[in-house]
Amino acid sequence: MALKKKIATAVAGTLLSSAALIGCSAGQGGQAPAASGASKEQTATAVQPPAKITVIKPLYPGHIYHPDSELEKLVEKAANVEVTYDTPPSADYKTKLSVRLAGGDIPDIINTFSPNDPEHNALIDQGVFMPLDDLLKKFPKLKDSFSDETWSYMKNPTDGKIYGIPWMRDRGGSGVVIRRDWLDKLGLQPPKTWDEFVEVLKAFKDKDPDGNGQNDTIPLTFKDNQVSNLYAALPLFGVNPGWSPAPGDPGKLQYGLIQPAAKDMLKAFRDLRQQGLLDPDLLVGKTLGIDKFKAGKVGVLVTNVGDFRQFAVMPGMKAEILDPLERQGNIWSLTLPATPINRTNQISSKSKNPEAALRYLEYQITGGFDYIQYGVEGKTYSVQNGVKIPFADDKKDPQYNTNVGLELLQPEWLFSDTEKYTKFVSKEIAEYMIKKLDTYEKYVMYDYLRPNVTIPTLQEKSSQLRQVLEEGYTKMLLDTKVDVDKTFEEMAGKWKSGGGDKVTEEVNRLQKDKSAPSYKYRKK
After folding, report:
1. Where is the signal peptide (predicted)?
2. In this structure, are residues 479 and 370 in contact, taking their beta carbons and an 8 Å threshold?
3. What is the CATH number of the domain that holds 332?
4. CB-CB neighbours of 257 under 10 Å
5. Three-state secondary-structure class, residue 5
6. Per-residue model confidence as pLDDT tens digits over 326-336
7. Which phi and psi angles does 440 have, rounded to 5°?
8. Is the dihedral of CA 502, 507, 508, 511 positive or negative?
């Protein structure tokens, strides 16, 4: 058999897109368990030649993919598949996916965005993906890994059918991580308000917290260079960046990114940048903010709360997650979609092996769960008193190291269990992270736009409208010569005339349910 061609690309960050991402026991010591399944027919596939399937999925900052590792071979053997991955950087993913779809080069498993994403539903309407209702009956373990509520979110608003397998949104959202050791060195307490936060940034800039004798500290940056990261700060200025009820009229939804109060956020961060308190390369540099933080160059990082696990195990760094900041009566709030689904695994309508694709997905969250999440006992972790203890990174066998690039989904129960984080950190740190997530989740701003409503103009013009906003926000932050008030009005006007007004009318006319969204993750 010819060697499979694996396509692996490095992680990069550029401006693109809006809206960002871990049981059952696997075998011990590298012995692959049998793939799960529901029928004798499925079990018989174990003696058949491995089915060839292809996958495309994005790689997010900090994630890696090791093609043809021994771990991947174990997973493929157990699931009786031969998989070829294409892993473009997340910032370039929509562009790369569009090119492949336009050329008719459609993989068996396509990792798309959430059911909220208008382009997602447009592709369903075009017949790109296969309905899975009948096939899912053959994979009860896959079906039972998600609640009935979650599956209801997956139903297409046009025909009521299920067109994908959910990849649940990680708990939490964007929070603030700070170098606690730098605070201690300068005799400072963790800031609780915006004003205190700015004073800490000034101290980090002027007082050489890393002790290298140079004025080179970056006080504040964001995880990567996507302008949408800035939207996480809007709640501090009283703005819900998504769709939410207009003040005084709960029956009318408005879009937050064009509301005048958003200018206050832009002015505040523009001022931070001009004072040298915000990373000057934000949105334009080549090095990601999360990498600068890991390199010890940054004092404060706005990133997903779950990313803290990466910093908790780094020698020479003591970081902590700040509690939500307060500013003039507003609280830093998580900005969450109306559903708990972050991405979706679609099956191509042209796939020759749809059952093999579903078998592979089912295996990832059943018999292959430990492989995908932890690696292999004795190679990447040990078991002490029934608890998996990961080796230090330099002690892990790279051929068996947990492979984020392979991962396509996670069981729903994982999001409320410390096991989600113990593959990276100790149980003590995992419990700390869960506690911080609980704190952040007390303050939430939901996007009221439901995925089960088709908004025609949004499906047609979402990319153009998003580009108008991204270009406008970028210009107002970076260009010191522009007048923010005037530029914001021009941007909002262009958004409205370019289809935004029609989208607003359709959202309010077609979405009858304008109540506040809410959901809970299924427990283990």
Report:
1. 1-22
2. no
3. 3.40.190.10
4. 24
5. coil
6. 999 999 999 99
7. -65, -35
8. positive
